[in-house]
């Protein structure tokens, strides 16, 4: 993982080449079909690139929309073999919808070539999908023809320092050892909380959970109204609050009060201060989660950042 992070900036030197580019135009809406790490790039673009015309679909088929006029379906699968994305491709084809595909290869690129669909082939460097967000973002942005956002993403990616948070990540890993991480953020930073969660799941090989303000104040918080009979359950948790100075003032107040109440009840709460502009903030948060989950995984003896349990699951559902 250290080598992957060391070379992170190189992803932003890459120039995506769109094959069958003449079949594309600029669209009013983009539906990005992807699962796991393969949709993270689109999610970051939607949130931090202010691309409100992006719809993210994480399921079979296609989402229900009022209409499909002037909409491009972007099929995103790092491996090219994601079952749900291939199903979305079949549905889009049957409905005659315009499509584009991004992948390292596999059945998805074969599908694109067979049907003359525009596609971008990501360099296959053996990365886990969540670690290839630079490639993913640049390819998707090229489909969307958002050159200004692409330039901003490239600048942030090249300037990012993956090793700046290594020591802090190691400290957090020590704090979290033997505990279950609970990650909280504002709704506007949902994607960052999700990235922390999946890093703990995939790299550390442990359960982890994420939720966002203000919704969690209306339900989840009640789960920590600790009784003597439930205290042992809560004592196994550590809360990571992703604190962003750009959050709504009432969200900041909600976080302050929630922290106070959890600490009063004996919970361990750790603040993660988000700094920088939009994409810079996102990359810095991702690096810290990488180092924390990697260090924690090493402490547990987790063999690698690969996901054999997921691979086994995919194999078994095809039996």
Descriptive overview:
The chain has 319 residues and is α/β, with parallel strands linked by helices. The chain folds into 2 domains: 158 residues, Glucose-6-phosphate isomerase like protein, domain 1 (Rossmann fold, 3-Layer(aba) Sandwich), CATH 3.40.50.10490; 135 residues, Glucose-6-phosphate isomerase like protein, domain 1 (Rossmann fold). The protein has 12 helices and 9 strands. The strands form 2 sheets. It has a 5-stranded parallel beta sheet, sandwiched between helices. The protein is globular, with a radius of gyration of 20 Å. It starts with a helix and ends with a helix. The model has no long low-confidence stretch (mean pLDDT 94).
Features:
5-stranded parallel sheet, Rossmann fold, 9 strands, 2 domains, alpha/beta, 319 residues
Order of H and E elements: HEHEEHEHEHHHEHEHEHEHH
- N→C terminal distance: 33 Å
Instruction: List the strand order in the largest sheet.
Output: 2-1-3-4-5
User: What would the CATH topology of the largest domain be?
Assistant: Rossmann fold
Let me know the largest β-sheet.
Answer: 5 strands, parallel
Would you identify the CATH H-level superfamily of the largest domain?
Answer: Glucose-6-phosphate isomerase like protein, domain 1
| Number of structural domains | 2
Low-confidence stretches: none
CATH architecture of the largest domain: 3-Layer(aba) Sandwich
What would you report as the Rg, rounded to the nearest angstrom?
20 Å
| Helix proportion | 40-55%
Mean pLDDT, as a whole number?
94
Residue share in β-strands:
15-25%
CATH class label of the largest domain? Alpha Beta
Structural class by SSE content: alpha/beta
Strand runs, count: 9
């Amino acid at each position: 993982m250290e080598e992957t992070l060391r070379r992170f900036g190189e992803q932003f030197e890459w120039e995506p080449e769109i094959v069958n580019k003449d079949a594309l135009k600029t669209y009013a809406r983009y539906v990005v079909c992807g699962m796991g790490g393969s949709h993270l790039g689109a999610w970051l673009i939607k949130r931090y690139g202010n691309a409100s015309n992006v719809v993210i679909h994480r399921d079979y088929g296609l989402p229900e929309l009022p209409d499909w006029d002037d909409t491009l379906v972007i099929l995103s699968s790092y491996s090219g073999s994601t079952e749900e994305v291939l199903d979305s491709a079949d549905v889009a084809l049957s409905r005659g919808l315009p499509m584009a595909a991004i992948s390292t290869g596999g059945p998805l690129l074969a599908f694109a070539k067979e049907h003359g669909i525009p596609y971008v082939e990501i360099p296959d460097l053996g990365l886990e999908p969540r670690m290839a967000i630079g490639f993913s973002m640049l390819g998707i942005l090229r489909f969307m023809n958002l050159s200004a956002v692409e330039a901003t993403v490239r600048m942030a990616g090249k300037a990012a320092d993956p090793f700046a948070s290594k020591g802090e990540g190691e400290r957090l890993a020590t704090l979290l050892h033997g505990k279950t991480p609970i990650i909280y953020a504002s709704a506007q930073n949902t994607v960052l909380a999700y990235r922390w969660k999946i890093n703990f799941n995939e790299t550390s090989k442990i359960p982890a959970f994420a939720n966002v303000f203000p919704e969690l104040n209306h339900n989840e918080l009640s789960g920590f109204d600790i009784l003597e009979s439930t205290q042992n359950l809560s004592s196994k948790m550590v809360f990571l609050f992703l604190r962003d100075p750009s959050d709504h003032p009432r969200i900041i107040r909600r976080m302050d009060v929630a922290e106070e109440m959890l600490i009063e009840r004996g919970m361990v709460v750790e603040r993660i201060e988000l700094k920088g502009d939009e994409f810079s903030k996102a990359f810095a948060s991702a690096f810290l989660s990488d180092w924390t989950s990697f260090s924690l995984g090493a402490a547990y003896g987790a063999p690698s950042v690969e996901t054999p349990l997921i691979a086994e699951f995919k194999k078994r559902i095809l039996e």
